Task: structure prediction
Amino acid sequence: MTIEELWPSFLSTQMMMLLVFGIALLLVGLHRLPGQSGWDSVPTATATATRTPIPTSTPTVTLTASPTVVPPTVTDTPKPPPVRATPVPHEHGIAWPFRGSISQGFSGGHSGIDIEAPYGREVGAATSGTVTFVGGSSCCGYGRYVKISGPNGVVTLYAHLSSFNVSSGQRVNRGQTIGHVGTSGNSTGPHLHFEVIINGRPVNPLGQLP
Ligand SMILES: [Zn+2]
Result:
């Protein structure tokens, strides 16, 4: 019995060769299955080396802005607003002739205030206005004094002066030097006797000054 007898007659020799070749291809393909190292398989070490490593996604650290909790300062008592941050213009616009200690206040027997000052200190006009009197006697009473008629019927008086810088009838501005502190008249030492007269009546200057 020959191979031609066993081989079906409808199959030609070429088809048989194709069949053998196909089986060979199938065997090669089985050897190339993943995970198996065959006679023609590429070493897995090389395969893994060429594999581009998948970058491990860096965890996005979401920096949640933690709000800085500022503890309320309990000990800080709020400061009261300054009383005279901006000087409010007074009703009559009366200014201090100069700032100083009050040696004697206003009372029924004292129609003004006595402001301590060294001899010769400049005396400023408390209001703008017109000088209505410059003079007096060095012996008695007010001594040498000045009167200024300001706006709204406000008259200011400056007594016990040592000298004058203004003359009667002169216009003066508030703050302008009208004379100097002295001790003329009924005075025991250098000071300014200052009066504020509103509508003919002396009032307490401290109630009018800023
Ligand atoms: Zn006085």
Notes: The helical segments are 3-6, 13-31, 44-50. The pocket of zinc ion is lined by residues 104, 110, 112, 114, 193 (CB under 6 Å). The longest helix spans residues 13-31.
